[in-house]
Every structure is written in C-alpha cells, then in structure tokens.
Design goal:
The chain has 239 residues and is an alpha/beta fold. It is built from 9 helices and 8 strands. The structure holds phosphoenolpyruvate.
Length: 239
C-alpha cells in the first residue's frame, strides 16, 4: 500500500518538523513496510528520516533559471527530493496548468527518474454525464503521459470530492479503478475526502493500492492511523 499526505499550503516549517518526527517514529516503531509519502510546502523541505519519503507538490521543469516564483530541479536536489505530485486538480483548475504543460513537466521529471504521483479526476458536471464521459475526460488527462513509466503512481481524485467531505460510492471507486487498471499497471491511489473513518473501506477495494489524503492527513495521529490501516490491509490483500 502507498499512503500519501498532501499538505497543500498548510503547516509551517516547525509544524512540519514536529509532524515528520511523529510519523517517522510511528513507521519505524511499527515496522511498517508500506510506502509513506508526505508532500509538505516548499518552505518545510529538508532531509528528514529514512522511513517516510518526502515529495514536492510541484516544481518547474528546468534545472534552474529565470522563472520567478517557481522552484526547479536544483533546489530539489539540495534536499534529495526524488518524488513529485503532478496534475493535481488544484493546479489544473485554480492555477491554470494545461494538459500540455503538465505533460511537459511529466516528461522532464520522468527523464530524471523521479517517482511521479500523477493525479486525474473529473469535475461534477462530467460525472453527471455518466461513466463513458468520465473515462473520456480522464483519457484526455493521460495525453502526453507515459502510462508505462516504471516509477508512476496514479491517484484518481474526483474534483468534486477534494476537500468537500463528499466521496463517490465504494462501488463507483471500484468501477473507475477497474477501468484505470485496464490502462496501466501503475499502483492506483484514491484521493478525495479520505479520513480515518473511511480510509480502511476504500483501501480494501479491488485495484486500490493506497490513498492520497489532504485535510484528513493534517493531524499526524490521524495519518498514522491510516498508515496502520493500510498495513493491516496489506497483509490481508496479500494473503
Ligand atoms: C488532495 O489534496 O489530494 C485531497 C485529496 O484533498 P482532501 O483529502 O482534502 O480531499
């Protein structure tokens, strides 16, 4: 299982340090073998422990240069960052990233061997058109993306479920993940209003290999509970 926390623009450097200390020691003390990734804000990047991977929520696809307000490969290398989130719906819909720019970013970081958590997901009006329209929409989000890239993780995150407290039914998650599985062998995460209370049943579904969690992971102890659930399920699913 893969359990990820996306802080977005939350937490200070100090708060992130405290959080990482809790999660690092939980993972180590409980012998967790699942992959745990935290995406903190840029200002909190540093070399943390060995048990939890640290990734970035974004970066500009260049070594360095005149790109005001961005950070690039050179700054990631300083902190040993080799994991990146690409295609998050907030970057697509609030910050205006186009599929073309997302694909360019994907190519750049894939060529440098990054682990890429690539997000796809439909807005509500598309979901209301039915499953064919939904899969067509997601297919467009795969344009320019190498679905055979070995370090790819895909996160299915319906836009209407992110930060809203709403989630698709378990059956719908399983249906979409089944359709995604037919397209790629990359691990498939679900994201969108995952919390301690629903993480277990979501991770237990077929073709769900983990979760990407935003607000529900801002508490370190909640995130640790979800890691624990993943680890228990991992044993069951592997039986
Ligand atoms: C996310 O940011 O990827 C996310 C799924 O957010 P939330 O869990 O808050 O819906």
């Amino acid at each position: 299982m893969i359990v990820c926390a996306n802080f977005k623009a939350n937490k200070t450097r100090q708060e992130t340090q405290a959080y990482m200390a809790v999660v690092e020691s939980f993972v180590s003390a409980n012998g967790i073998s699942d992959t745990v990734i935290v995406f903190p804000p840029f200002t909190a990047l540093e070399h943390y422990g060995r048990n939890v991977l640290v990734g970035v929520q974004n970066a500009y696809p260049v070594q360095n240069g005149a790109f005001t307000g961005e950070i690039a490969l050179e700054q990631l290398e300083e902190f040993g960052i080799e994991t990146i989130l690409i295609g998050h719906s907030e970057r697509r819909h609030i910050l205006g990233e186009t599929q073309e720019s997302i694909a360019e970013k994907f190519r750049f970081f894939a060529e440098r061997g990054f682990a890429i958590v690539y997000c796809v997901g439909e807005p509500l009006e598309v979901r209301e058109e039915g499953n064919d329209a939904l899969m067509e929409y997601i297919d467009k989000q795969f344009e320019g993306i190498d679905l055979k890239y070995p370090d790819l993780i895909i996160a299915y995150e319906p836009v209407w479920a992110i930060g809203t407290g709403l989630t698709p039914s378990l059956r719908d998650i399983e249906l979409i993940h089944g359709a995604l599985r037919a397209k790629t062998s990359a691990p498939l995460l679900y994201g969108g209003s995952v919390k301690v209370d629903n993480a277990r049943e979501i991770m237990a579904l077929d073709n769900v290999e983990g979760v990407l969690v935003g607000s529900g992971a801002l508490s370190a102890s909640d995130f640790c509970s979800m890691i624990e659930q993943a680890s228990e399920l991992n044993t069951k699913k592997g039986e």
